[in-house]
């Protein structure tokens, strides 16, 4: 089977299962994660790394399927650099406390690199960057042609997403900071670190992808941003359960932004968004 055939099969799979992938999986995942944190589900199921990573990969399918046709040698090389950067900056962070502060992983997330950082880290890291870029392209349109606007807007959304993610992850016990912090047990240093690492990562991303090709793909593929729906639902609900209002508001803001941009409607994700051409 050639690459085009694989991409077509993946595309069909995602289109036929948008509600399951974008809504059902994060809702079930929320129940399982909270149940694990509260100790009310069986030990073998609680935070099971195989189940956890499998579910995450399913929710990532829209992003994978949406961007797969754009992956050429340049993009593959750039993504490889991002993989190395994500591992490297996280290792530095775990061993030195720079740039995120003194933190450690507390839950088994599969094989660990040097017993410190999950090998699967890019699976969690890449979507923050790519979804941020795509959301900015969707909302800003032609203004994204300006490199300064593109760079600053994507960086701002990256940090916003981490303002949602980290409090929920800490509440669940995925990772934590030795001294806690003022923002739902997350230190300000963490977000200073995200400005530093995010600046580098967004720069790599900008050099990796052709902006016009990404913009065209955003018009052609109605599901490419569905992973952001999953993110907003899962982490919004986790933060709601643990009483973290600011992350909840930010998660809702991300979902409302998608809704206002007519990316999807709440009646059914199988409809074609009105910002897309009706004929391809």
UniProtKB/TrEMBL annotation:
On the tree of life, the source organism's domain of life is: Archaea
Q: Does the keyword Membrane apply?
A: yes
Pfam families named among the record's database cross-references: Caroten_synth (PF04240)
Q: Does the keyword Transmembrane helix apply?
A: yes
Q: Membrane spanning segments where?
A: 20-37, 43-63, 75-96, 116-140, 152-176, 191-209, 248-270
Q: Which terms are listed as keywords in the entry?
A: Membrane, Transmembrane, Transmembrane helix
- Family matches, as PANTHER family: SLL0814 PROTEIN
State what protein this is by name.
Uncharacterized membrane protein YcaP, DUF422 family
Provide the species name.
Natranaeroarchaeum sulfidigenes
Q: Species lineage, top-down?
A: Archaea, Methanobacteriati, Methanobacteriota, Stenosarchaea group, Halobacteria
């Amino acid at each position: 089977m050639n690459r085009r055939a694989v991409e077509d099969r993946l595309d069909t799979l995602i289109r036929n299962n948008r509600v399951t992938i974008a809504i059902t999986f994060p809702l079930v995942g929320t129940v399982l994660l909270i149940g694990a944190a509260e100790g009310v589900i069986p030990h073998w199921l609680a935070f099971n790394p195989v189940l956890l990573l499998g579910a995450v990969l399913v929710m990532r399918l829209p992003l994978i399927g949406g961007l797969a046709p754009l992956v050429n040698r340049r993009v593959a090389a750039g993504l490889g650099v991002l993989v190395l950067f994500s591992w490297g900056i996280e290792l530095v962070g775990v061993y030195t406390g720079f740039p995120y502060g003194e933190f450690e992983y507390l839950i088994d997330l599969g094989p660990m690199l040097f017993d410190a950082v999950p090998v699967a880290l890019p699976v969690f890291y890449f979507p923050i960057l790519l979804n941020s870029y795509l959301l900015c392209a969707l909302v800003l349109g032609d203004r994204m042609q300006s490199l300064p606007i593109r760079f600053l807007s994507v960086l701002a959304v990256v940090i916003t997403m981490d303002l949602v993610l980290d409090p929920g992850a800490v509440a669940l016990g995925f990772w934590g900071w030795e001294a806690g912090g003022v923002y739902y047990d997350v230190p300000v240093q963490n977000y200073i670190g995200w400005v530093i690492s995010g600046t580098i990562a967004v720069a790599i991303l900008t050099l990796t992808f052709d902006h016009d090709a990404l913009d065209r793909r955003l018009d052609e593929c109605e599901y490419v941003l569905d992973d952001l729906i999953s993110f907003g639902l899962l982490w919004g609900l986790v933060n709601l359960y643990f009483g973290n209002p600011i992350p909840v508001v930010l998660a809702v803001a991300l979902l409302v932004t998608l809704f206002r941009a007519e990316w999807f409607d709440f009646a059914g994700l199988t409809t074609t968004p009105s910002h897309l051409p009706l004929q391809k």
